Amino acid sequence: MFVYFFLTGLVFTSILTESSATVRYQPEQIHLSFGEKERSIVITWSTGNKTDSIVKYGGGGQLLQTKAGSCSLFVDGGSKKASQYIHRVTLYYEEPDSLQPETKYYYHVGSDRGWSAIYWFMTPPENLNEWAPSIAIYGDMGNVNAQSLPRLQAETQAGNYDAIIHVGDFAYNMDDYDGEVGDEFMRQIETIAAYVPYMTTVGNHESAYNFSHYRARFSMPGPYENMMYSFNMGPIHFISFSTEYYYYLRYGFKMLVKQYEWLENDLKMANHPANRTIRPWIITLGHRPMYCSNKDDDDCTRIKNRLRYGITPLRLFALEDLFYKYSVDLEIWAHEHSYERLWPIYDYKVYNGSYDEPYTNPRAPVHIVVGSAGCQERVDSFNPLPSWSGFRSSDYGYSRVKVHNATHLNLQQVSDDLDGQVIDDWWLVKEMPRIKFPLADKLEEATKDTSQNHIRETVEINE
Hints:
Blueprint: H1 2-23, E1 28-34, E2 41-47, E3 54-59, E4 65-68, E5 70-75, E6 83-91, E7 104-111, E8 114-115, E9 119-122, E10 134-138, E11 141-142, H2 149-157, E12 163-167, E13 170-171, H3 180-193, E14 198-201, H4 208-217, E15 229-233, E16 236-240, H5 254-270, H6 273-278, E17 281-285, H7 306-309, H8 319-325, E18 330-333, E19 339-342, E20 345-346, E21 349-350, E22 366-370, E23 389-393, E24 397-403, E25 408-415, E26 421-429, H9 440-446, H10 450-462
Parallel strand pairs: 10-12, 11-13, 12-14, 16-17, 17-18, 18-22
Antiparallel strand pairs: 1-2, 2-6, 3-4, 3-7, 5-6, 7-8, 7-9, 10-24, 15-16, 19-22, 19-23, 20-21, 24-25, 25-26
């Protein structure tokens, strides 16, 4: 009798274990991103247990095409060492049964152990040079108080956007409760990220375990695990980089050096006449701002902040000079839980195009801060208005960027507090051919100083 109950117990335990494991094969946290090649789409999702990585997709609601990918194990750094498998499948345009331009594709992901719901995405037009994409951009959105999310869900599923860009600080925080907060956040944004590419920039709230959750959960192009990369959309060249390398030096000075060199090389290539003609707009994406007028003690309130001024006292790897020298048009930041639009600015001096049209042929980059999507830390207030700040708001909300052509860019700030009202609507206009900013040539001569090169060489020698 004892043997009977013992064997029955083993079978019952086995059934429960298998049942529990089967439930964890169900795909979740589905999101899209742009891949290594300009027209490629990466589909990423998660399962609790290892299984096949398959996407079934097709036009007209018929899921007749199949593409397999790969998965990798991710283990959280917390005490439970919670694990999950991150799946990735890339769809290309040049393969047999490839994606067709300007087509609505339906898809679902999973394996024979479980499939997701059916989602869809639109492919870009055949002539990418004439593509005029619409993009939603924001930062600092958490699980709690994600106030902008319902409106973004409705607008994304209505087909209003070609991509979404999240400029740092996710979930608050993805590593909390052994990664459960990160899982919930990824499920939350699935309602937008499964329909359009969800491009990301790392923020300070991703720092745990050397940014492991951010590096593992997303699938941005390039070899640097999402920390720095660039991509193109129509006439725009986007550059995403880590401001956190300037602040988390305990993770190694080497990556700060590598990123600066990568940024300069990417900007040089983007500024090659052939490339700048095709993609005249250069937009940078970084989490912590160089400038802000918020009522706090954040680094952007200081004149000699690390991003703008460099690592003092030698002013190493200063980004304001670099971005000015290579004629960056627009610099988008977050971190401050507010919206702020600056006048064209360099070294705390305003360089408007003209008094009546400050953003027509401006003589310096334009900065905006878009960190008010909504999180449990609420919104930030401001100090008295400085002369270099053009507009600011503490309303919850997000920005829209509409690229009309090679010369005209429209930007709007949406207030969720005011039921979707556009509270800032302005145009950035750059006539062709592009003209260098006035001090760029002098700056290039000044930056030929050997001190920064010496630091680079020292780091390389010590590797």
